[in-house]
Design brief:
Layout: H1 4-13, E1 34-37, E2 45-47, E3 61-66, E4 83-85, H2 95-103, E5 113-124, E6 127-134, H3 143-161, H4 168-176, H5 181-185, E7 224-230, H6 234-245, H7 250-254, E8 257-262, E9 268-275
Helix pairs in contact: 3-4
Length: 277
């Protein structure tokens, strides 16, 4: 069986390496549980699908975020999300992802919607914080709405500066044409132009969404490894904890600190924390 829980347990048992490796790519990940590894495209890695999907589905997508400060490095390739449709990742452009997953034995289409996690490491002097964080921590509004509202701000700024009056419904109609990041990030080939133009979206995390920020989330301690997942109901919390408990020894489990934190925009999250020795 494979899952993000198995992945975190491996991080937990090898957590001392977070103080040793220069980059997260050098961490000794368990390659046996991965269906793909990539560099420069999303995702950096993916968990194999579990053959027994009743308790552990597997198939989670993971992006590595490494920084030399207590801030989350920018998202340069994709806008952060809690889930991702696998069909958008196995197109002909990213055929290598499909090939890797199929070579790993995955029936890719058996789980079309995949959970997304971000493995984040930040440093502050001699201290570090590491968080394996569900993407919903950053996706507090839907990606489409985020893009629309961003374009609306641009239109408002330009029409105000040019002293142009434009009906609100027309502004929203224009903005709604750009709900897909891929549409405007595609390279454009213009006749007689000697260069091609491609717009690039970079997503920066605000203080309220920065889980490494000690003022906003003081519960995330220096020199700690954290597993951060959405908290819905108490019964769901027990279910998540029991899944983790199945993979750890009694001594390992008893050494963990388990608590909830309140996201400033997106409800509660369950945190499973361990010191990094």
């Amino acid at each position: 069986m494979y899952s993000i829980f198995h992945f975190w347990v491996h991080l937990f048992r090898y957590r001392s390496y977070f103080n040793q490796v220069k980059s997260l790519e050098e961490f000794p990940f368990d390659e046996q549980m991965l269906s793909c590894r990539n560099k420069g495209i999303f995702p950096d890695m993916a968990i194999k699908l579990s053959r027994n999907g009743q308790t552990f589905e597997g198939g989670e997508l993971i992006e590595l975020k490494d920084n030399r400060s207590y801030s989350v490095s920018s998202f340069n390739s994709t806008i952060p999300a809690g889930t991702k449709d696998i069909t958008t990742l196995i197109s002909s452009k990213n055929s290598n992802i499909r090939a890797q997953m199929e070579h790993a034995g995955d029936d890719i289409n058996s789980l079309p919607i995949r959970s997304v996690y971000y493995l984040i490491r930040g440093k502050n002097k001699n201290n570090i914080k590491v968080c394996l964080t569900h993407g919903s921590f950053f996706e507090t509004i839907q990606k489409e709405d985020l893009i629309i509202q961003s374009f609306l701000q641009v239109i408002e700024e330009r029409t105000n500066k040019a002293n142009i009056t434009m009906p609100d419904d027309l502004k929203r109609t224009i903005s709604s044409l750009f709900t897909e990041q891929e549409i405007f990030s595609r390279t454009r080939d213009i006749e007689k132009a000697s260069v091609k133009l491609r717009f690039r979206v970079m997503t920066e995390v605000k203080a309220e969404g920065n889980i490494l920020n000690s003022k906003k989330y003081p519960e995330i301690l220096d020199n700690s490894l954290n597993f951060v997942i959405p908290h819905k109901l108490e019964i769901d919390e027990k279910y998540q904890i029991n899944k983790l408990k199945r993979l750890l020894t009694d001594d390992e489990f008893s050494a963990l600190k388990i608590f909830k934190i309140k996201h400033h925009f997106n409800g509660f999250f369950l945190v499973i924390q361990s010191p990094i020795n």
